[in-house]
TrEMBL record:
<protein>
    <recommendedName>
        <fullName>TonB-dependent receptor plug domain-containing protein</fullName>
    </recommendedName>
</protein>
<dbReference type="InterPro" id="IPR037066">
    <property type="entry name" value="Plug_dom_sf"/>
</dbReference>
Length: 115
């Protein structure tokens, strides 16, 4: 009886190990496919201008506040993968602290816009 239980335990462990390994391998393959799709989609990016106003529509030249326009080429040259770090390098008035002081800020890094 002990031999049968030992054999059954071994078979269950082998099945779980094989299943777990299969999941890790398939997850890596899916992540690679998703990255390839993202790369294809990102090639057709247009210039986006974001203006923070609630008044009547106006052009970039008519706006009373400075507007930073950042192209995809400028962001691509940076080499950073973190969006806050990309914007920090592209916008001179944007401050992002690497090691914030307060407790909650260590989970979500706050960005300060001075200008």
């Amino acid at each position: 009886m002990k031999f049968k239980n030992n054999l059954l335990n071994h078979a269950v462990k082998l099945a779980l190990t094989t299943t777990t390994a299969g999941l890790f391998i398939s997850g890596t393959a899916l992540a690679a496919d998703e990255q390839a799709e993202v790369t294809k989609v990102n090639k057709n990016v247009e210039k986006i201008a974001v203006v923070g106003t609630r008044s009547a529509p106006r052009s970039i030249g008519d706006s009373p506040v400075p507007i930073d326009i950042i192209g995809g080429e400028e962001l691509g040259k940076s080499g950073n993968t973190d969006m806050l770090e990309l914007l920090k390098g592209a916008i001179p008035s944007l401050n992002v602290h690497s090691m914030p002081i307060s407790d909650a800020a260590s989970l979500v890094r706050p960005a300060n816009l001075r200008g």
